[in-house]
Specification:
single chain, about 375 residues, alpha/beta, Aspartate Aminotransferase, domain 2, eight-stranded mixed beta sheet
């Protein structure tokens, strides 16, 4: 048995001690540790503002809500936003919930991100935003995307939940657009049990995110802010003052405390993942029937995609059964072709240019895990199963 899980714990005694400190304090809801984590997170990625949430899915939710509630962006229900045809479900759900029209564009078979030729063809005078998904740790080619946009007023958003620590031309993914989202779920690059974050450099957006995260109230806004102007000095008057239709997607103080420990380890974790990826690439680059993901910039290698090449007689189900029998966990590549899911009936959408590649990946692709420690021997053993 190889026994190769999709994910493993990144914690040691430091995270446990951080939890104990919070439990001893008796204060568990969002507070100073969350604020400290937000500052550390923003500093690490070179962003002005970070807003922590209880999940990456919640980060996507308030990102989309903030987009429509901003006074600057002039985006409203019914406007078109371009999305890749392959991503996780909660990339798309907030867009549907806020009444946006999704324009699905196919992905590139090699990078698993946008097919840039089809993206170019999909951009029109109706396009208000592009949501770029950095898949399995791989950043998009933002130079080309920006060239395709040119001088058009099209907003870039990023779902970076699978790609914490990825870089494109020395800049971290998740910081190329108006907002970028991150996840710190157990299986991701760092873990705060459950958790997410939104990064932005826009002060108005930041203030909107603060309000949306907690009930739609003004309590968490600074005295001078870009939504209400100036807060009342009388705290009682601001304690239950609601200005936006918000949520309660706040993280706990425990998650913030864990995050402060984890973010210090992220660089080391990413370095180990990249060393594993070099070996994985060397092992599988000339494989007779398997194609692997082509790196853009510097991937943070969330996991390793395995795609059966065209014109082979290899059956994916047989491969997965063999791997499972030997203790190797596998999963579909995110949602696969999202348009095949029954939930699509609730969406206002159109497809631009066909989605043949997303469908091919859906039928012929899967991924296995990567980890923050050396797994080269496991990769060798898996390759022997796939000879």
């Amino acid at each position: 048995m190889i026994n190769f899980p999709l994910a493993s714990s990144t914690w040691d005694e430091e995270e446990i001690n951080a939890i104990h400190e919070i439990t001893k304090s008796g204060f568990f809801t969002m507070g100073k540790k969350v604020e400290e984590y937000e500052n550390n997170f923003a500093d690490f990625f070179g962003s002005k503002y970070a807003v922590m949430t209880n999940s990456g899915s919640s980060a996507n939710l308030i990102m989309v809500a903030a987009l429509l509630m901003s006074n600057k962006n002039n985006i409203k229900r019914g406007d078109e936003i371009i999305v890749p045809a392959l991503s996780w479900s909660t990339t798309y759900f907030p867009l549907q919930q806020y009444g946006l029209k999704l324009v699905f564009v196919d992905i590139d078979k090699h990078t698993l991100n946008f097919d840039l030729h089809k993206l170019n063809n999909a951009i029109s005078n109706k396009t208000k935003a592009i949501l770029a998904v950095n898949l399995l740790g791989n950043p998009n080619d933002f130079n080309i995307i920006n060239k395709l946009i040119g001088d058009q007023k099209i907003i870039i958003l990023e779902d970076n939940c699978q790609s914490m620590g990825a870089q494109y031309e020395e800049k971290y993914s998740g910081t190329f657009g108006l907002m970028g989202t991150f996840s710190t779920f157990y299986s991701h690059h760092i873990s705060t049990i459950e958790g997410g974050c939104v990064l932005t450099n826009d002060e108005e957006i930041y203030h909107i995110l603060l309000v949306l995260r907690a009930h739609g109230w003004t309590r968490d806004l600074p005295k001078f802010n870009q939504i209400t102007g100036v807060k009342d000095d009388e705290g009682f008057n601001e304690s239950f003052k609601f200005i936006l239709p918000g949520y309660n997607v706040r993280p706990t103080e425990i998650s913030g405390a864990i995050g402060n420990v984890q973010i210090k380890k992220l660089s080391k974790f990413i370095s180990s993942r990249r060393e594993n990826a070099k070996f994985f690439h060397k092992t599988f680059k000339n494989h007779p029937y398997i194609q692997i993901q082509e790196e853009i910039g510097r991937s943070s290698w969330y996991g390793f995609s395995i795609i059966i090449k065209d014109n082979t007689d290899v059956n994916r189900n047989d491969i997965i059964k063999n791997l499972t029998k030997n203790g190797v966990e596998t999963r579909p590549i995110s949602s696969g072709n999202f348009l095949k899911h029954d939930v699509i009936k609730y969406f206002d959408y159109r497809i631009d240019g066909g989605i043949e590649t997303a469908e091919y990946i859906d039928r012929n692709g899967f991924f296995i895990g990567n980890h923050h420690y050396d797994v080269k021997q496991k990769i060798t053993e898996i390759s022997q199963l796939l000879q």
